[in-house]
Amino acid sequence: MSPQAAGRGNGFVPWSVPAAGGMVLGVACSGGVAAGTGVALALTAAVAAALLAARGRAAHWRASAAMALVAFAVGAIRHELWEARPDPVRPYLEQETRWVGSYDGEWFSATEPVATRLALVSREPLQPGALRLTGTARRAPGKRNPGGFDYAAYLARRGVSAQLFVANVLEARPRSGARQRLARGVAAGLPAEVAGLQLAMTLGLRDDLTSEDRDAFRRSGLAHVLALSGLHFGVLLAAAGRALKPLGRRRRPVLLALIVGFVVLVGPTPSVVRAAAMALASLLALTSGVGRLEAWPVLALSACVSLLLQPQMLFDLSFQLSYMALLGLLAFSGPIARALGVRDAVTDPLRPDLPGAGTRGARGRLRRYGALALGASIAAQLPSLSLVAGTFGSVPAFSPLVNLIGVPLSALLVPLGFLAGLVGLAWEPLAAGVNAIVLPIARGLIALADLGARLPVIGWPHVEWLGHLCWAAFVVALWLAARRRLRPSRVLLVTLVAAVVPTAAGSARPPPDVWFLDVGQGDATLIRLRGGYDVLIDGGGTPFSDFDVGERVVLPALRALGVRDLDAVIATHPDADHVEGLLSLLRDVPVGTLVTGPPTPTIPLDTRVRDLAAELGLDVHVAVRGETLVLGRSGEARLEILHPPAGPPEEPGNEASVVTLLRYRGQPVLLAMADAGMVTEDELALGRIHTLKVGHHGSRYSTSDELLVATRPSLAVISVGENRYGHPHPTVLARLREHGVPVITTLSSGAVRLALKVTP
After folding, report:
1. Are 523 and 540 in contact (CB under 8 A)?
2. pTM of the predicted protein model
3. Residue 451's closest CA among 499, 496, 406?
4. 272-315 pLDDT, tens per residue?
């Protein structure tokens, strides 16, 4: 009998469970409060724990509370120590410096002028090995837009101090590590698309994955198979255990060494650390004679170990999804499978032996597998649905069915990939022979992801803390019902409350506002009004690049800001940095009307936008000076078209841009000049405004003295990114300073929010 089972009748709780809960709260509190406060919280928790322990032989609940408080203190202190670590790269920021170190294909570990880890940014591909180079260290960009990716935090959680922009490589001595040597075998004889998939699933090398494949796997609900996860770890461990079975009990020390070696090889990602800690604990228990451990305390123990090693990873999405998935498996896979007709479903992922082996007939075994796999897929995703929705704006509706096929395919590909890598160490043609089996399976998985990406999704944007809390309450109610601790009527009541509370609390949208999104060297302006009336002016774009700003930047921002549809989209003029992003956006977001400037058939991008609108059945309206778009409840806002005049433009281009004036409750709030310059400014009859969106990203041919005298803006916003055009031009900035107009640029500030309000 295991120690856990022995004490069940007395309310025994394994120490790791309250310890994990306390440590999670300690790290969360330390990360969510001002620096130094976490230490005070930790000391308070330690004192409280000491008082509880001092009361003699405590009851089980008191011992659990004491353990949780001690762990709270440890977690808070551990995170505070991580936050207080020195910043070795600070003296070298923004100055070209000579660096010496080694590159492993992912990170550059510098030894001179200081020991630190950096993310290399180079125009030319660099091979792993020793490097001596000159470059400029810069802080990575943080979260630039609502719903955007915080790259700075991502790097910091992985111990990377900054980005290093390479100027010149002075010396390179390529040297392949074990990971790179294995990678050659994994990719041997495979086309680029399949090689990228195998390298990601087998070794965690994701640089060769195409953006299209990443999107397809994410939209289909298969993104987890692209990352090294507990699934991959478990498959490899099971394969190794089967291969070493002739060794009997002596295989356990070998498996222990293989687990540690695997973590060293692929790196300590949250899911790998979690799976390794659980496997190590189970194997050590078996080796020492303790017996088989139960999954709940082992999962809690792995959480304690993970947070002691990497407390900052609690705030990483991969950490959260990894633990939520296993919590869901433990809590719900058994009940769901039994509801689907499997009476002896496994609920402990540490047990590789599946009961019910006596199920007769291929059809019966297939039906049983289908129920178990479907139950596991639903269970793994259930706790994290609100987190997935809040991150990506939607939930793949058919993800459990797609995973029913995708997970077994990936379970075949992972050990085959490692086999190819190992035999490739001896002879690459032999690895290519193994990959002849890999190729059709991998193509099948890619085709499945493409199919799943085209299936319907459940839109669920803008999930805030209250939404996550209500979803957690619903999941806990289901768990209690599955354990027969809560009646169905109570579950229904909790479900209704959880569904109604976020709506009854009111929309999380702030008062009406305008967002100038950071789309680099481009334009994208969102106007939000009460009642869900929203207008987008331009959608950004990246000329001479395949980076889709609409898909990658604007769409996540709309979802994060709670925008489900757009009453109007205004394409000011067919420059790529203004309308290219609309090509993907129009397909994904319902749009009432597309407002454009005069048609310019000589510009292919203009034709593409209009053809797409026709394909989607959108109403297209050509803007003409003097028109007004009435917006919001009771017409509280009006968008006046100031330019262009009726008729074909004299010269297509920037001076044919659609220029708009936003009035909110009668007051002129925003003049958006698009790319129009002084030629157009001279044609406009303007009065005082609050905010000027500077024309053409601050070009020297925009923003005349006459415009500033006429409008007397209180604020100027310039949408601009890193560029070679000299935007914003120093003369424009000087004119704005002379007129006493404060300037904000998206390059320096990221997305800029302007609240709409009536001023006296």
Report:
1. yes
2. 0.80
3. 406
4. 888 888 888 888 877 776 767 788 888 888 889 889 988 998 88
